[in-house]
Design a protein that fits this description.
The chain is of the alpha/beta class. It folds into 2 domains: 160 residues, Rossmann fold, CATH 3.40.50.2000; 174 residues, Glycogen Phosphorylase B (Rossmann fold, 3-Layer(aba) Sandwich), CATH 3.40.50. 50% of the residues lie in helices and 14% in strands. It has 15 helices and 10 strands. The strands form 2 sheets. Strands 7-6-5-8-9-10 form a 6-stranded parallel sheet, sandwiched between helices. Strands 1-2-3-4 form a 4-stranded parallel sheet, sandwiched between helices. The chain is globular and about 60 Å long. The mean pLDDT is 92.
Length: 346
């Protein structure tokens, strides 16, 4: 499955790990990158495919973010209801509560109808369960966090030895814009006055790359910040394997796949206490969580882990252990399997 962003990463992980491989599961994406005309044609083609093939399925599992993501998929919800299929809505959007609150009367009705029509609603964390319960029956909601595969603790220890003897890499993966706090991060890096021979920041993701590059130049950070754009495959794995810190100063979040991916490589986290992030990262244990929108505090927090290598090592091992305990693909497999079996038996 191709695609960029957290939802695509989640579904791709299901496929690569073989989640529910013994069941007949087909995936119908409703969004692609490109110009407006291309997106509309792509969406309509896949909705038609769903209409043609839906009779052969028992369950329709819908992965949605917010705003236009939900509006597109509301049509799929109605199709599934029309054919009397069991419906699961799986919420990934960091702004779903904001989307509901900012919607018109009709917009709120559309959201409520979708959730009332569904049989199960999957949220990524207890925090999001509380938010969604404001407009969805609590007995439908199930908490299943995003999950990842992970490397061994011995591999983490070996990687850490190398990280302490080379340039320390700060890593950011995700949408390059205001919501993920990229500009806060660049301001923090400016405050740190890093030696490029000792520490560098690698910015990876999609977004307004020209604006980001201009900001880097304006702040005089071209020697300490590398803007790599979208990365995947071996390049992404190498960055995760070699990163000293993962930094994600988001203003809004669901439960970021990028944080779980970083922790799965034993990378301590510097992030914010928003959305489902505190469900994955306990501040002072697997990393540090701060309030969003504070470049000075962000700079001080990054500096603490650059200087305190003992705490950094402890957090590294705590991160991989947390993934193994709470966010493994095996756990996800069992949780999804139970939901599907329960729905099929109702």
């Amino acid at each position: 499955m191709k695609g960029r962003g957290g939802v695509a990463s989640v579904v791709r992980g299901y496929s690569e790990y073989g989640i529910l491989k013994n069941l007949k599961i087909d995936y119908f994406p409703t969004h692609c990158d490109g110009k407006k005309r291309k997106k509309i044609v792509y969406y309509l083609r896949n909705v038609v495919n769903i209409l043609i093939k839906i009779r052969q399925y028992s369950i329709v599992h819908i992965h949605t973010a917010s705003y236009w993501s939900y509006r597109r998929l509301f049509v799929v919800i109605l199709i599934a209801k029309l054919f009397s299929k069991k419906i699961i809505i799986h919420i990934h959007g960091a702004k779903f509560e904001e989307y509901f609150n900012n919607s018109s009367f009709i917009g709120k009705k559309v959201i409520k109808i979708g959730f009332k029509t569904s049989d199960r609603v999957i949220c990524l964390s207890p925090e999001w369960s509380r938010k969604i319960s404001k407009f969805c029956s609590l007995n439908k909601i199930i908490i299943i966090p995003n999950c990842v595969s992970f490397i061994s603790i011995n591999q983490v220890k070996q990687n850490n030895k190398k990280k302490l003897t080379t340039t320390k890499k700060l890593l950011f993966l995700g949408e390059l814009g205001e919501r993920k706090g990229v500009f806060d991060l660049l301001k923090a890096i400016k405050l740190l006055r890093l030696d490029p021979n000792k520490t560098k920041l690698f910015l990876c993701g999609n977004g307004d790359l020209i604006k980001i590059q201009n900001t880097i130049l304006h702040l005089g950070l071209e020697n300490v910040v590398q803007l790599l754009g979208w990365v995947q495959g071996d390049k992404k794995i190498e960055l995760l394997r070699s990163a000293y810190l993962y930094v994600l100063p988001s203003h809004y979040e669901g439960l970021p796949m990028s944080i779980l991916e970083a922790m799965s490589y034993g990378i301590p986290i510097v992030s914010t206490n928003v959305g489902g992030i505190p469900y994955a990262v306990e501040s002072d244990k697997e990393g540090y969580l701060i309030d969003p929108g504070n470049p000075k505090e962000l700079a001080n927090t990054i500096n603490c882990l650059l200087e305190d290598e003992k705490t950094w090592e402890d957090m590294s091992l705590a991160a991989i252990k947390k993934i193994k305990l709470k966010f493994s693909m095996d756990t996800l497999h069992q949780n999804l399997k139970k939901i599907y079996e329960d729905l099929l038996n109702e």
